[in-house]
Amino acid sequence: MMSPSLIITAGLVNCRDSLSGFLTNPAVIIKDGDIIELVHATTRHALNSHNVAGPITKTAQEVSGFTSNTKIQSASQLWKVDIVDEAVGTSWRVSKHEVKLVHQPTGSYLAITGEHLPKWGFGQLEVVGQLAHNVKKSAGAVWRVTEHNQAIANMNAEDEIGAEELGKSLVRTAEQVVQLGFFEKLWHYKVAMVAAIKRMPSEHDYSSSAFDWPLLTKGVAYWMSNSSNAQVYLIGNPVLWYAGTLSLLIFPLVCVLLTVMAWRQYGVPCLNQWRELSITATVFYLGWFLHFFPHACHPTGTQYLSTYLPALIYKLMAMAALASHLYHYFCRFRWSKAVAVVLCLLLLQAALRTRQQLVPLSYGNTALSNSELSQRQWKESWEIIMHKPLPPYIDAQLKHNLQKKQFQEQQQQQQQQQQQQQQQQ
After folding, report:
1. Which terminus in the chain has less CB density within 10 A, N or C?
2. Spatial CA neighbour of 235 closest among 165, 155, 305, 308
3. Are 3 and 64 in contact (CB under 8 A)?
């Protein structure tokens, strides 16, 4: 994979003058290990990063241009030069050396992910601050300078003022182009989501079909301990999950039934209640449909249960709205309030008990035995991981090693405390 080219055009390799705040003239030589800023030529925006997820790759940090006075320097704008396969102090040479740029406050690497931004980003490649353990897997964090414009790098303060005015005009034009309405943003989000699904592998051990999600057929395993059955397994609360799916089926029937009753003028609820029912049914079903239907139309590509969570929110709100309307409609009948309260309490009790049973799988803080995991596996399609039982002699050896390690750690802590007390005395 070829290294991406980084074009430096605005004194990016120059140093600040601490007195004037402007870039030094002439340019200084940058060496391996030096701390620099990356400044845009026309807008004078300094490249910075912070602990905010990237626009597409959520496991990486966002990288953006920071608008600030040229006399003010922020730590988030500082990058360390790391020349690849060269000793510390080596001069950075254009078109010869490949470099990595390390963000000083967070330790992330300036990198490209290979993903393309949507329309608001003009389809350009996504640039992020990549974590160190992810950088080792790709060459997206290795850069080579292919051009250096010395005329622009040596611009004086008067030229900077003109460049700043030009940059402001360019920024205003970009804002006018990038502005999108709500439905345009929603549409581009859906298009990007479907395109990303198509690029994924067609099969995965924990992938599932969109039609499996309403019935909670399959979960997703995220993490498991090497020494026990403690694990993080994404699975919903079956009681609320099935109750919400049932409400999606009952809600249209209730709407049709009330429409027929209104047409025949039999037990018609008040007009306000009918309007509320119509609005809630439209909003919640439309929200559920918009989050579920695009995935159901594209069975190819890897999809996971987590994709259904936005639609799940609308499903649960539809369930609450249905319960509320049925309660207000049937409360005029004898014993109806008592029956409704009992049903709600039973549903709540069942949901809480189910949560208590499955919560160790959500947080991974409890080492369950194989029999306890089997009790929590409501369906065979839930591929909950279980460690095979170890032979007795191996299990005893592991316990002995663990106790020995804990004893050594306690001794080290005691020694450190004694050393601290001696230093204080």
Report:
1. C
2. 305
3. no
What CA–CA distance (Å, rounded) separates 84 from 32? 9
Contacts of residue 142, defined as CB under 8 A and 6 or more positions apart, other chains included, come to: 3, 4, 84, 98, 99, 100
- Structural contact between residues 124 and 82, judged by C-beta atoms closer than 8 angstroms: no
Mean pLDDT of the chain: 75
Confirm if 355 and 237 have CB atoms less than 8 A apart: yes
171: buried, middle or exposed (CB in 10 Å: 19+, 13-18, 0-12)? middle
Specify whether the CB–CB gap between 400 and 419 falls below 8 A: no
pTM reported for the whole predicted model: 0.50
Query: What are the pLDDT digits (tens) for 176-221?
Result: 444 667 777 777 777 777 776 666 666 677 788 888 899 999 888 8
Three-class DSSP labels, the chain: CCCCEEEECCCCCCCECCCCCCECCCCCCCECCCEECCECCCCCCEEEEEEEECCCCCCCEEEEEECCCCCCCCHHHCEEEEECCCCCCCECCCCCCEEEEEECCCCCEEEEEEEECCHHHCCCEEEEEECHHHHCCCCCCCEEEEEECHHHHCCCHHHHHHHHHHHHHHHHHHHHHHCCCHHHHHHHHHHHHHHHHHHCCCCCCCCCCHHHCCCCCCCEEEEECCCCCCEEEECCCHHHHHHHHHHHHHHHHHHHHHHHHHHCCCCCCCHHHHHHHHHHHHHHHHHHHHHHHHHHCCCCCCCCHHHHHHHHHHHHHHHHHHHHHHHHHHCCCCCHHHHHHHHHHHHHHHHHHHHHHHHHHHHCCCCCCHHHHHHHCCCCCCCCCCCCCCCHHHHHHHHHHHHHHHHHHHHHHHHHHHHHHHHHC
Work out the pLDDT band at 19, boundaries 50, 70, 90.
very low
The Cα 368–Cα 379 span in angstroms is 18
244 vs 214: CA distance, rounded Å? 9
Q: Do the Cβ atoms of 163 and 40 come closer than 8 Å?
A: no
